[in-house]
């Protein structure tokens, strides 16, 4: 929702014929907004819910332009309704771009003239919605060179999972990753150390130029492990690869298997340059779980 309105019929039956919405902000409204909808918010919760009525649909013909709704909505004398102005974004806006919607008293036409705009000077002023800033999202995937599924008992610096994180529509700083251990190997006794390594050359192996970000150990078999580190920046539109690296005990039995999994959106912690703390809601990282070889 870009703007909410409470409209009330006058002392006589009132038909609202047109509502004009004015656009501003750094985003291109004509390109980045597919459609604009004027809806009746029946339960007055500020959200367009299933079953609520779309009164009119329109779009912007130019950037920072004006779009006109034609609801032709009749309100009985003294009747009040909540209306919302909704933008349907095209997905082309860049992270950090802003969008604002407003309307003046003269932008609403009815059979009884322009309305009194409550809360504005003389009732003839402008109502402006909040500034909406486009945020990006983090995408997770199995890296292009995720490690092989067979390792040697007692092997050191054995890469078990390569995770590629991609910054979509804004830059991100990654400060912690969490993993789950699966398989028949006793992760608590047979894995002596776990490292998270920044795979600088995306080779899927620990090599010169890679950076060890942090270490830890599983506290239980088939347990979970969180490793935090100095934030790693992923530039707007760029990708970086992270390795999960195990040191194995010499007594690990042949044929034992293990798998490393980045399971949940909350397994990736950090901040977006625009959106702030990475959340687990609508802007949660996509692509999880990321599952290593068994």
Overview of this structure, please?
The chain has helices at residues 29-32, 187-190, and strands spanning 3-8, 14-24, 33-40, 54-58, 66-69, 73-75, 80-89, 98-104, 108-110, 126-128, 132-133, 137-142, 158-168, 172-182, 191-198, 211-216, 224-234, 239-248, 259-262, 268-272, 276-277, 290-291. It is mainly β and 294 residues long. Strands 2, 5, 6, 8, 9, 10 and 11 form a 7-stranded antiparallel beta sheet that branches. Strands 14, 17, 19, 20, 21 and 22 form a 6-stranded antiparallel beta sheet that branches. The model has no long low-confidence stretch (mean pLDDT 90).
Please render the helix and strand layout as text.
Layout: E1 3-8, E2 14-24, H1 29-32, E3 33-40, E4 54-58, E5 66-69, E6 73-75, E7 80-89, E8 98-104, E9 108-110, E10 126-128, E11 132-133, E12 137-142, E13 158-168, E14 172-182, H2 187-190, E15 191-198, E16 211-216, E17 224-234, E18 239-248, E19 259-262, E20 268-272, E21 276-277, E22 290-291
Antiparallel strand pairs: 1-7, 2-5, 2-6, 2-8, 2-9, 3-4, 3-7, 8-10, 8-11, 12-13, 13-18, 14-17, 14-19, 14-20, 15-16, 15-18, 19-22, 20-21
Task: Quickly describe the structure.
By secondary structure, the chain is mainly beta. The protein is built from two helices and 22 strands.
Number of helices: 2
**Portion of residues within helices:** under 10%
The biggest sheet amounts to: 7 strands, antiparallel
If you average the pLDDT, what whole number results?
90
Keywords:
294 residues, 22 strands, 7-stranded antiparallel sheet, mainly beta, single chain
């Amino acid at each position: 929702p870009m703007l909410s309105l409470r409209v009330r019929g006058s002392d006589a039956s009132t038909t609202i014929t047109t509502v004009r919405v004015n656009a501003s902000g750094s985003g291109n409204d004509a390109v980045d907004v597919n459609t604009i909808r004027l809806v009746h918010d029946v339960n007055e919760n500020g959200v367009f819910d299933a079953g609520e009525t779309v009164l009119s649909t329109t779009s912007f013909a130019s950037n920072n332009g004006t779009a006109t709704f034609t609801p032709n909505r009749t309100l009985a004398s003294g009747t009040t309704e909540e209306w919302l102005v909704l933008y349907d974004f095209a997905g082309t806006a860049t992270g950090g771009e802003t969008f604002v919607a407003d309307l003046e008293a003269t932008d609403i036409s009815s059979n009884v003239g322009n309305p009194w705009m409550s809360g504005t000077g003389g009732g003839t002023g402008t109502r402006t919605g909040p500034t909406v800033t486009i945020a990006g999202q983090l995408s997770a995937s199995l890296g292009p060179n995720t490690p092989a599924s067979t390792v040697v008992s007692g092997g050191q610096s054995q890469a078990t999972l390569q995770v590629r994180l991609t910054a979509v529509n804004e830059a991100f700083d990654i400060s912690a990753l969490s993993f789950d251990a699966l398989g028949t190997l006793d992760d608590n006794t047979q894995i002596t150390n776990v490292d998270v390594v920044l795979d600088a050359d995306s080779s899927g192996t620990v090599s010169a130029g890679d950076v060890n970000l942090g270490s830890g150990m599983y506290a239980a078999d088939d347990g979970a492990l969180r490793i935090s580190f100095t934030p790693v920046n992923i530039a707007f539109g760029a990708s970086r690869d992270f390795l999960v690296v195990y040191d194995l005990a010499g007594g690990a039995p042949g044929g034992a298997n293990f798998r490393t999994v980045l399971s949940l959106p909350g397994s990736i912690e950090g901040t977006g340059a625009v959106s702030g703390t990475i959340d687990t809601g609508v802007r949660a990282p996509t692509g999880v779980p990321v599952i290593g070889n068994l």
